[in-house]
Amino acid sequence: MTAETLARSGPLQQLTDRLAELPRTVQVVPESFVAMIDLRLDPAGAAGSDVVSYLGVDLPTTPSTWVETDAVRVIWLGPDEWLVTSLSRTPQDLEAGLRDAVHGRGAVVDVSGQRTALRLAGEHARDVLSAGCAIDLHPRFFRRGAAVQTLLGLASVVLLALDDTGTSYHILVRSSFAEYLARWLLDAAIEHSDS
Amino acid sequence: MSELGSPASAAPLRLPEAGRIDRTVTYGFSFNGQRLIGHPGDTLASALLAHGVHQTSTSIKLGRPRGIAAAWAEDPSGLVQIEEPFPEPMLLATTVELIDGLVAHGIPGQGRLAEVPDSARYDARHVHADLLVVGAGPTGLSVALAAARAGARVVLVDEQSEAGGYLLGSNERIDDRPALDWVAAATAELAGFADVLHLQRTTAFGHFHDGYVLALERRTDHLGASAPRNRSRQRVWRIRARHVLIAAGAHERPIVFTDNDRPGIMLAGGARTFLHRYGVLAGRDVVVFTTNDSAYAAAVDLADAGARVHAVVDARAEAPEAWKEECTRRDIPVRTGQVVCGTEGVDRVTAASVASLSDGALGERDRIACDLLLVSGGWNPAVHLFSQAGGRLRYDESLGAFVPGEDREDTTVAGAAAGVLELGECLADGGRAAEAALTALGIRHGGLQAIPAAGTGSGQTPPLVLWRVPDPDGDGTAQFVDLQRDATVADIARAVGAGMRTVEHIKRYTTIGTAHDQGKTSGVIASGIAAELIGRPVGELGTTTFRPPYTPVAFAALAGRDRGSLFDPERTTAVHAWHLSRGAVWEDVGQWKRPRYYPLPGEDMEAAVLRECAAARGGVGILDGSTLGKIDVQGPDAAEFLNRLYTNMMATLKVGSVRYGVMCGADGMVLDDGTVLRLADDHFLAYTSTGGAAAVLEWMEEWLQTEWPDLRVYLTSVTEHWATFPVVGPRSRDVVGAVFPDVDVSNDGFPFMTWRDTTLGGVPVRLARVSFSGELAYEVNVDTWHAQAVWDRLIAAGERHGITPYGTETMHVLRAEKAYPIVGQDTDGTVTPHDLGMAWVVSKKKPDFIGKRSFARGDNQRPDRKQLVALLPEDHDLLLPEGSQVVEGPNLSEPPVPMLGHVTSSYHSAELQRTFALALVKSGRSRIGQVVHVPVGGSLVPVEIREPVLVDPEGARRDG
């Protein structure tokens, strides 16, 4: 058997059409195949500075925040844990690069398949989130650069604010919960549908 | 407008003007089978009263006629069943907004739920605020305005259809203009603030600690057929506020007297509300019975609207001068020092008996004919929300009511809810409360705002506290305290006579305060009467505990969207769609949807599972094992960490190898099991059971973070990063070899319990020689992005070998034939590895590991512990029900029958061509070969105890 390129598939393929029919004010777009690496290290140690040089950006140490460069986004998950994501790098490449930088002084794990990404945008994006998220999403507090680990509906998510107006969010959800979450979002959006 | 419509004159007590109803639109509705009319802005109660209909039903125990006794949620008696538009029981006529086509009837304390599913949507919203203001009456609006102007994030909720609170039912003036003009200006100004959320028809029903308040918004019922179909019917608002300001007003309370429950007997403020808000005269011939000033306004307003007010009966010795003058001007006789001590009438009150009351003795009785008897025993501040969150109350002697008795950091009570009953003072109190709350929140504000001018200016004459009128001719059995429960003064007397001395006991004995209204009118009165009977001050006796919900809330609203397919998340694997397309029958494993079996046309489960088992043992099968928990363990101390967690040795595992391990709790009982791969010296991948994944990670983190923080180890869940497909059976080598030609799949090149990394199309793939069936097997792991593609390759390559997808049922049969236990099925938290016949998995060399000490306990050494064995029924076709007891037999002894153990797993075996079971049996290992019995369907069936491994006990098949 030849080893040609393997096709990729994501958990929301079955729902693509239904998501596309959502009203303009509540847009849900799956962002499949984002490389995601779980990074664990002591940010005060030498591994921290080597990783910062490699990534080209400081590891965020303020809880519930994220930073980015052209190539990667770094999301704070804990005092010694970050999720490094990238649309332009392959998981293998990103994992290998980080592993070199960390050099045994922490842990680097490819978790690209662990979560699925969604973009939620539109005038009513925040309303939809407030149907199932207990976090205060007022743009005064939850704005670009914020990232919280919380529940949306009954699914654990990492929720990132992408703008300062409460109209654009990035949601990372465990892949097995992705279909549930998409159906939950479709349901919550009914309130904002035209009919 | 409506088919049911008839001339407006059919509502004889509707005034031509006044009220906040829209007379240009007429609604038809039906009540108790009668066709009636009303208008937008009406409640069901106001529309009924416009027709002179007071009686709604009869009482639950005594069958006495009962009617509308108040204008809002405090009404103890006017319960109705809605039939159209959708059946709903136990609603108050006073809180049901009238819509065209409404069909309802009164109910005697019990209704019926709909027999068809409720298709309405119920949802929820979370909202955060600096300040939550409960109540949009004069106090609440003043607070909300001040806070909004200071830039605070404000949530303002009010349970009525429009803002105004008490003002809606009055003709008060503010700044020398109708008070409702001020209300309109205030709400319009609030609407202009982006950070103000103002919700009407929204009842704050629960106040919990730290500013957490639940409120229910009713969103569509009042719109009738024009309600948007995509709008939720009700919404639970989960409000988290830095400060909660309660401006919930006060409830007027009645006075208890003999036959005080007849239709037409109503709270004075209620009648005033029906007049001013709905343009309805609740009666034409009125008697007013009061202990305080407020009822005079009802008397005067009703007289001005055309009613004949035959008397104001004021229990106080002196009537307030200003009001006396107003009454004189209208020829309303004022009788001071008198009380209403009885009534006449059946379906409606027809007369009141009035007598003087001095030193507890009634004087001679006067009979005054009337069709409306208004009562006011004073006002109870609505302290419910304050009390729910733990706020202490105190009894205010001058008010004769319980008021908030302490300051709380995150809660303020203002206005009538705090016992401030005059309009002008409420407005001022609201301003002060807002200022204090904003200061406490650190929100800059421009100081005390200008307070609108309002109020009578005359001040209040002190009220008299009168809980009940004496009943010298009776025994209190017609003196109703809780109308809904038909509970009387006699019931309280009986409770006290039986020795009860607390209101909580009396409440439970009499059921006072346990109905839909939770004692809004009856609770404090019951305390007052009980205090008199016991001979203690009411302030000492106190009130019963206020608990959520303030008013009834439907379970459907609390459930919200978490119902039906969204009730519990269904977790799916990366190849879920494939399983679906192959007609998989699902098994719920925790939240996971796993294929249980894949029936071919005409197959039942037994046939499908026998076929799948035969394929796995005779050819090749494939399972989606992606739900297995996977934990990446990295760090210089990873080996030591795992050594302490597992009962067996993990530190000696070689890179490239796999080891099966068992974890126990500190009690030595089996917690979870699975395989461990050593990826590098400092890097392991631990597999857990599907159900144990989250718990095992938490278990590991707990030990790492709290007991062994010195170990340099990082744990990362990779459960959903990796899809896992066991390819199982004698032909599995051919299939895996074909798909991964780079891998030497021979037994020497890839021995049992080793793993190999490879790639397919550049994608990393990890293969492991592990077996949960005893057969030659390769577990194929790939990231979930490429799971479907790899699965498809395996299926394609296996086609010529008849590759058969199998589900959890076949997996269970195959593993049971090998006596591989399922933690949680063959174990129950009381089973040690030794009990499972797995002493080999408990290291004797390691200095310590979790559970080690417990194995030395005497109880864990007992020879009669339950041990895992196989059971073979003598009848080869008999499937023992799982959970069956194992007894000695062949006859049952007298109860209690000694139990030897129980069946944990039971299946048909394709390989053995018979049924078999696993069981935990006392001293099971020393009973091998014996026949014991299992009760099945009323008879005892003989079963033979066997060594647990029934298929290939020598393990010859695992290498193919």
Q: Would you spell out the secondary-structure blueprint of this structure?
A:
The complex is a heterodimer of chains A (195) and B (960).
Chain A: H1 16-20, E1 27-31, E2 35-41, H2 46-55, E3 66-68, E4 73-78, E5 81-86, H3 91-102, E6 106-110, E7 115-121, H4 125-130, E8 147-152, E9 155-161, E10 168-174, H5 178-189
Antiparallel strand pairs in A: 1-7, 2-5, 2-6, 3-4, 4-5, 7-10, 8-9, 9-10
Chain B: E1 27-31, E2 34-38, H1 44-50, E3 55-58, E4 65-67, E5 79-84, E6 88-92, E7 103-106, E8 122-134, H2 138-149, E9 154-157, E10 173-174, E11 177-178, H3 179-191, E12 196-199, E13 202-207, E14 212-218, E15 234-246, E16 250-252, E17 265-267, H4 268-278, E18 285-290, H5 294-304, E19 308-314, H6 321-329, E20 334-336, E21 338-345, E22 349-358, E23 361-369, E24 372-376, E25 379-381, H7 384-388, E26 393-396, E27 401-404, E28 411-413, H8 423-441, E29 480-482, E30 487-488, H9 489-497, H10 503-510, H11 523-534, H12 538-541, H13 555-559, H14 576-581, E31 585-589, E32 592-597, H15 605-618, E33 621-622, E34 629-634, H16 638-645, E35 658-664, E36 670-680, E37 683-688, H17 693-707, E38 714-717, E39 722-728, H18 732-739, E40 755-760, E41 763-768, E42 777-783, H19 787-798, E43 804-805, H20 808-817, H21 852-855, H22 858-861, E44 866-873, E45 885-886, E46 901-909, E47 914-922, E48 931-936, E49 939-946
Parallel strand pairs in B: 1-7, 8-9, 8-15, 9-12, 15-28, 17-24, 18-19, 18-24, 19-20, 33-43
Antiparallel strand pairs in B: 1-2, 3-4, 5-6, 5-7, 10-11, 13-14, 14-15, 16-25, 21-22, 22-23, 26-27, 29-30, 31-32, 33-39, 34-37, 34-38, 35-36, 36-37, 39-42, 40-41, 41-42, 44-47, 44-49, 45-46, 46-47, 48-49
Helix pairs in contact in B: 2-3, 2-8, 4-5, 9-10, 9-11, 15-20, 18-19
